[in-house]
Design goal:
The protein is of the alpha/beta class. Helix content is about 35%, strand content about 15%. The chain has twelve helices and 16 strands. The strands form three sheets. Strands 6, 7, 8, 9, 10, 11, 15 and 16 form an eight-stranded mixed sheet that branches. Strand 15 (about 395-400) and strand 16 form a beta hairpin. Helix 3 runs parallel beside helix 4 (about 120-130). It starts with a helix and ends with a strand.
């Protein structure tokens, strides 16, 4: 996730309505994802969480904590790690990410799950990587994190923002558009994703008209330019400037089914826009809702839970870490990092992935039969690559009604993005 509490809150509202930087770091050298290691753990697998949200975004902590608890309970019900219970360490969400990482090291964490905010990944990595403790984020989406220097100790079960580019282009083509225009908010999110949309659209045979950029609060001219080009569809790539841009597009005569919204522009707009301004428009939200079974487990862990954001991705991150430790027969962080690709069904120069297995218990059975398994979890296929990125991304498709509010209408999967 990028730092955008408004977007996260809007996504939460819809989910509740329907179902209940690249910076260098002084990390360890080499690439722990592909290096051979010897067992060095103490026999107890300890999982830590970095819950980095406070204030308006604090609601994002609860589903991740509930999901981690649910995953640990399921792992322990299946025998734990080498017959011993997996431990979930205490959380300290009021501290900065780096401070939480230091707390986890003091508590002898073997793996850390988090953070939510992409901008907090580097501080956590700078603490954990030299100690050879892998960090698996369920929510980081900044594209630049694919190249962050972590010594091979950084992974994420969330897709980079640019992964939605081909899906946004596909939504336009599926609706019959032959020409599209991209209206995007200035900044790395808008620039990178608009380029990904344009590239995918061209490859699919669509005619891509010149993209138009705008600053939040100053979208009128850009909206008029986009509409003046007479595209069959306009893809809006924006975050906090989305509502104003949608209003300006409507003022310029473009609304409804000709609009496609990126995840950052997804929200319940209701009376905040003119009547029927978004009727027929479609939007993307990364990931998919947890299964009914997991939702029940989440509520068991936290009966007051009112949000499922990043729960599926967190559950999968914990489960993958435990499977990596099981494959290595060792709980040390180096062993976990070296085995995550293999248990996820990913490839770092290897052959075809094994048949998918669902859940910790089922995948343990697969490990008994051979060295490689292919965990497909609550968030969908994972398949880590050599950068620690997932190589397929699941997106939920929402369509807007007359009231300018969205409802889930489909699911799309995007393949490797590079």
């Amino acid at each position: 996730m990028h730092p955008s509490p408004l977007r996260a809150g809007a996504a939460l509202a819809v989910i509740l309505g329907t179902v209940l930087l690249a910076t260098g770091c002084s990390g360890a050298g080499g690439n722990a994802r592909v290096e051979a290691v010897e067992a060095s753990g103490d026999g107890v697998l300890r999982v830590g969480l970095i819950l980095d949200n406070t204030g308006d975004a604090a609601f994002l902590n609860a589903p991740q904590l509930a999901a981690a608890k649910a995953a640990v309970e399921d792992i322990n019900a299946a025998g734990g790690h080498k017959g011993r219970p997996v431990e979930l360490l205490p959380v300290h969400p009021g501290e900065e990410a780096a401070a939480q990482a230091k707390d986890l090291l003091a508590a002898k964490a073997d793996v850390a799950i988090g953070p939510t905010d992409s901008s907090h990944a580097a501080p956590a990595i700078e603490v954990l990587s030299p100690a050879r403790v892998p960090l698996i984020s369920p929510a980081n989406t900044a594209a630049a994190l694919s190249g962050i220097a972590s010594g091979g100790y950084y992974f994420r079960t969330a897709a980079a923002d640019v992964a939605q580019g081909p899906v946004l282009a596909k939504l336009a083509k599926d609706a019959g558009a032959a020409t599209i225009s991209v209206l995007y908010q200035e900044g790395s999110y808008g620039k990178d994703l608009s380029a990904a949309v344009a590239e995918a659209a061209q490859k699919s045979g669509l005619t891509v008209l010149p993209a138009t950029a705008f600053k939040p609060g100053d979208s009128a001219s850009a909206a008029r330019s986009a509409v003046k080009a007479k595209p069959d569809a306009v893809v809006l790539v924006a975050r906090e400037g989305a509502q104003a841009a949608l209003a300006e597009l409507n003022n310029a005569g473009l609304a409804g089914s000709r609009l496609i919204l990126s995840d950052g522009a997804f929200a319940r707009y209701g009376s905040g826009l003119p009547p029927r301004a978004l009727e027929g428009a479609r939007a993307l939200v990364p990931g998919q809702l947890p299964s009914a079974a997991l939702q029940g487990k989440l509520l068991k862990m936290d009966p007051s839970l009112k949000d499922v954001s990043y729960a599926a991705e967190t559950y999968d991150a914990v489960t993958l870490a435990a499977l990596a430790a099981a494959r290595a027969q060792d709980d040390a962080g180096r062993s976990i990092a070296a085995n995550l690709i293999a248990v996820s069904g990913g490839s770092a120069g290897a052959g075809a992935a094994a048949a998918p297995c669902l859940g910790y218990k089922a995948c343990l059975g697969g490990l008994a039969a051979g060295p490689d398994i292919n965990y497909d979890g609550e968030s969908g296929p994972v398949a880590f690559d050599s950068n620690g990125d997932i190589t397929s991304a699941v997106f939920s498709v929402f369509s807007y009604g007359q009231d300018n509010n969205p409802s889930p209408t489909g699911r799309e999967v995007a393949g490797r993005t590079g």
